[in-house]
Input
Amino acid sequence: MTDQMPGVLDGAVPPQLNSHLFGHAEAEAFLARFYRSGRSHHAILIEGPEGIGKATLAFRFANYVLSHPDPSTAPEELPDPDPHAPVSRQIASGASHNLLHLTRPVDDKTGKVKTAIIVDEVRRAGHFFSQTSGTGNWRIVIIDPADDLNRNAANAILKILEEPPKRSLFLVLSHAPGKLLPTIRSRCLPLKLSPLGVEDLTKALSALGLAPDGGRMAEEVLHSAGGSVAQALKLMNYGGTEIILAFDEVLRASGPTARRAMHRLSDVLSAKDNDVIFGFFLDHLRDHLMERARSAALSGDLTGADRASRLSSEIGERIGISQAYNLDRKQTILSLLEDVAR
Output
């Protein structure tokens, strides 16, 4: 990894530093109208697939609100943040007294990002509001993403959402809002973002200096990324394209050849500090199984559809058990590949 912020993909710009957003003009216009109306809701659920710009939009909107604390004088559109403005500098450095970014913390012992947002992080929000209660300014909390809240943290956030402080705004990000507590969703105004189209995805990658070269490989990246900059980065910078090809080889092969292909793929995925590509593979595996389930159902093979669907839903549980009991990752991956190959 480079000296990027923890949890930020190689080649990406941290959302609090990113002055460019592509493909979400309608959402930006909605947020500007929403704020200028003076009847703003205290919590907005910004939902959509991972890596399409939800966090960048949240920081962009936070910059807009904090730069124009009086809604009646705010611009009709969300402008690109001015990197030299005091509000932008404070947000970029994490020094804003009016903005709190809640995300998975770094484990002091391992130096790695933890697997969940824990309740201690949510307690920071309580301290944040108590410290700023007399300022009269907007106080904004970005929960990035709320999907990572563990049960205690989710319940703690819910308590704050039920009785929000004055002039507070929660920007709740979610890749899979259906997995959030229904009571959290019910207290938020939903704003759904769609995956980026090919043109906007290409522009976003070009802004990062990572536009794929022309030809078949570029088409494969843009197609496989599913409108997500994060997925494109994993394909281009983390070997995701090679992982997909290796998985396809496992599916095509049989007998000893398939077994060797499984071991080669498992060796790569279980290598030390390969968590990003491991997560990429698990997402790809789930998508493959759900597509297999749909195809089986459409062809009338309800048994096959049920088997593929159940295996897809079991992936998270099996990985969680493996991590909880510190089991060998390679054996867990081999077990999954064997079940899929059957």
User: Anything to note?
Assistant: The domain at 15-192 is CATH 3.40.50.300 (Rossmann fold). The mean pLDDT is 92.
